[in-house]
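Quick one, tokens below:
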């Protein structure tokens, strides 16, 4: 059986997603010198991790290794670029040397973060001063929430200081993540982020895993073009960081509720979510009227039609059902980027053979748009649409969009059939045998072998 190239790409995307779960190449021991640089006070292997719940995942993605070793099951195949210090700080952060700022160090003690930083980074200090973190009891609403946090921490919180997030001095400086900072005071949001694993990729908590397991990501490095990895990294950083939707150092929930909070990543040709929203009737209403909407209100308290005349990304995607909203946007995803062939289409090309003998649950099956689970998700969507529309109106729209997707797959099936024929008649030029190795194909094929990959996919990678 021939496996078409486009399908090989899709399959490899998915496969690489499974790799960490297979416990592939064991990560090397972490050098003692690097361990010393580890930011967390407790070694990460002992501290609770929202981002990586198992020791195996923590070792591959979270344990600090400085810039010595890459991430994921193929971490030995590349070295991190220096920018990874900030992009994936729990694993790659290295503290700066500030000894050349001798004047400042004479003037301020190591714990005078704010005073010294008023000279070093005034923008950050001023943003922090105007944030709720600098006045956590500024009104009744926040005072109540702060009281809960105080109870949990067993101490008074009059200000959330630089040191609360970054560490007590430059000697133990860290870049804040859900595990080493935010989640300790905001465990609910930590749990909500972590809960995305239950729904599978794509999701935020596995952003980095998806990023580094794609063959061409590491191939960039092997071709001496490691710097280009940031072309992926900038968006795939929501695995442990909490500053994607609440920008630093304001950290405002109201900002996180605005659709622009999603736009820096959910845009561009692969996933034009912002462009689609912006040009839809609902997005246009947001542009026309959104400046007056009460973004301070928790999503669960928003009165549809009055507070928000049309929905935001958050209002739609963070709705969990039963009148509840959580910061995880993925609970209702059905189509998953539309990259997996759906069961509901009768394929006539080689697409009918998906998953090509691949023996790696759960990617050993087609997408099920009409499974009981998907139907349940759709009902939750309709519950949400029904806050403004008639459910019949919304149902017809969503079902029509499903049909539209099925039609798209049928077109792909037709195109694939032509490709199958071209390959079968040996007309492909250059032929598969003459082509360069698929990115990382050498490593991938050997690591997984034909049993797990299925013979067709195994050969396609080789
Ligand atoms: C004596 C002055 C001084 C004090 C006190 C000080 N810092 Fe800094 N800090 C600096 C300087 C200077 C830099 C910039 C280093 C550079 O640009 O290379 C810096 C950089 C940083 C950075 C950015 C590090 C990076 O990798 O980019 C953070 C975060 C930070 N400081 C937090 C703190 C915290 C938290 C405290 C208090 C515990 C603190 N600082 C106390 C002078 C100080
Ligand atoms: C609520 C937690 C929190 C507090 C409080 C906080 N920071 Fe940060 N800070 C962050 C996060 C998150 C980042 C981004 C980390 C990354 O890049 O991985 C960051 C990054 C930085 C950076 C480096 C990035 C840049 O833009 O230059 C500096 C410098 C910094 N903080 C200084 C400070 C100073 C000074 C204070 C106190 C006035 C402070 N921070 C208080 C969360 C915090
Ligand atoms: C030492 C405890 C502590 C840490 C660490 C901490 N926070 Fe907070 N945060 C608070 C308190 C207290 C409040 C005010 C009460 C509330 O809203 O929960 C708050 C409020 C907030 C708010 C709402 C503020 C508003 O104006 O809408 C956001 C968003 C937030 N924090 C995000 C973060 C993020 C992101 C991090 C990590 C980079 C972080 N916090 C780290 C204690 C903390
Ligand atoms: C820093 C970048 C970033 C920001 C900000 C961001 N996302 Fe994402 N989001 C991603 C990435 C990257 C993925 C896919 C991760 C993966 O490959 O597993 C994703 C996945 C998703 C998914 C799952 C898609 C699916 O096919 O099921 C949804 C839904 C989503 N995001 C919604 C949002 C919403 C709504 C916001 C704003 C409130 C937002 N995101 C903000 C980067 C971001
Ligand atoms: C502009 C932001 C952005 C950039 C740049 C970006 N991605 Fe993504 N990526 C996303 C978002 C958002 C999704 C989820 C889209 C959806 O589900 O509709 C995603 C989905 C994915 C997925 C599929 C989902 C999964 O978990 O299997 C993979 C794999 C992936 N990205 C890897 C990469 C790689 C590798 C690069 C660089 C070559 C890259 N991305 C560049 C934002 C980005
Ligand atoms: C995808 C965007 C997104 C990400 C990522 C995100 N948040 Fe939020 N956050 C929001 C939205 C939207 C709300 C408002 C939720 C609501 O109103 O129900 C919110 C609310 C909050 C609040 C509540 C403030 C209040 O007054 O009730 C805190 C605290 C907070 N986030 C902290 C975090 C922490 C900690 C993380 C990292 C684990 C995080 N956020 C990651 C979008 C995000
Ligand atoms: C009216 C409600 C609504 C609004 C507003 C909305 N979406 Fe969606 N979005 C949906 C529905 C419904 C789906 C399809 C879910 C499914 O069946 O898989 C979807 C799908 C997605 C997906 C997954 C796409 C895929 O390829 O599978 C992402 C990512 C996403 N939306 C992000 C956003 C972002 C970012 C915004 C704001 C700029 C936004 N959405 C605004 C309802 C909404
Ligand atoms: C907060 C209220 C609100 C929610 C929730 C909402 N919509 Fe809308 N939607 C609107 C408004 C208002 C319009 C513009 C109507 C007009 O053109 O006069 C609109 C327009 C539309 C349109 C454009 C077609 C038309 O007749 O103009 C579609 C399609 C649509 N919505 C589908 C949905 C779906 C599907 C959901 C749920 C996933 C949803 N909407 C959730 C308020 C909402």
């Amino acid at each position: 059986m021939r496996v078409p190239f486009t399908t090989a790409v899709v399959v490899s995307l998915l496969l690489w997603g499974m790799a960490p779960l297979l416990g592939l190449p064991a990560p090397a021991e972490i050098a003692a010198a690097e361990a010393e640089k580890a930011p967390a006070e407790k070694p990460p292997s002992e501290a609770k991790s929202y981002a990586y719940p198992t020791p195996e995942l923590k070792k591959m993605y979270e344990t600090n290794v400085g810039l010595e070793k890459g991430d994921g099951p193929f971490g030995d195949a590349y070295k991190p670029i220096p920018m990874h210090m900030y992009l994936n700080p729990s694993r790659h952060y290295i503290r700066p040397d500030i000894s050349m700022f001798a004047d400042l160090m004479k003037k301020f003690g190591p714990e005078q973060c704010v005073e010294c930083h008023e000279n070093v980074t005034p923008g950050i200090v001023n943003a922090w001063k105007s944030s709720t973190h600098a006045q956590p009891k500024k009104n009744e609403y926040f005072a109540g929430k702060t009281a809960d946090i105080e109870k949990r921490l067993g101490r008074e919180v009059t200000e959330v200081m630089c040191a609360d997030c970054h560490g007590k001095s430059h000697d133990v400086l860290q870049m804040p993540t859900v595990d080493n900072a935010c989640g300790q005071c905001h465990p609910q949001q930590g749990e909500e982020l972590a809960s995305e694993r239950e729904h599978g990729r794509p999701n935020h908590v596995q952003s980095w895993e998806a990023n580094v397991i794609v063959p061409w990501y590491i191939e960039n490095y092997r071709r001496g073009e490691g710097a280009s990895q940031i072309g992926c990294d900038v968006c795939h950083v929501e695995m442990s960081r909490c500053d994607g939707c609440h920008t630093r150092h304001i950290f405002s929930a109201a900002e996180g509720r605005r659709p622009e909070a999603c736009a820096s990543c959910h845009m561009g040709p692969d996933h034009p979510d912002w462009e689609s929203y912006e040009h839809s009737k609902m997005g246009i209403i947001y542009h026309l009227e959104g400046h007056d909407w009460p973004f301070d209100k928790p999503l669960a308290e928003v009165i549809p039609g009055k507070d928000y005349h049309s929905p935001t990304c958050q209002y739609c995607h963070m709705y969990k059902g039963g009148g509840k909203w959580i910061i995880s946007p993925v609970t209702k995803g059905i189509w998953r980027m539309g990259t997996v062939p759906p069961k509901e289409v009768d394929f006539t090309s080689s697409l009918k053979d998906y998953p090509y003998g691949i023996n790696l649950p759960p990617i050993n099956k087609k997408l099920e748009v009409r499974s009981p689970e998907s139907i349940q998700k759709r009902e939750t969507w309709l519950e949400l649409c029904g806050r403004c529309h008639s459910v019949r109106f919304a149902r017809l729209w969503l079902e029509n969009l499903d049909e539209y997707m099925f039609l798209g797959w049928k077109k792909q099936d037709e195109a694939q059939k032509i490709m199958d024929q071209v390959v079968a008649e040996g007309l492909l030029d250059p032929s598969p045998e003459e082509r360069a190795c698929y990115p990382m194909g050498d490593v991938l094929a050997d690591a997984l072998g034909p049993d797990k990959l299925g013979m067709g996919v195994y050969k396609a990678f080789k």
